[in-house]
Amino acid sequence: MDQRIFGKHFTLVSENVSNKDLFTMIASEFNVRAPRFEAGKIALNLDAFASEIFCEITGKRPQLTKEIVRSAQNSQKYSNKQIKNTLFLNLSRYVRPFRTLVVS
Description:
mainly alpha
């Protein structure tokens, strides 16, 4: 670990969690029923369109926009292999898994 590392960017993640798993964990902690139905692209886009029309009438800011719908439909996975290989670290010793953060 005597070497100096400059100009590198690292992504630190303990695990990848899907939106469905995230909402299920949150719902279980609040003792409410987890989401049961998956909203498809068409339904989400129609809701965003209706939300924007409603907000034009009321003058409020939309809670569901096209950008939010696009972001919700994207699945992004991250890896911490680069920092593990560069620094020869086992991050599982240092980073608490996401599931324990939600539960505690």
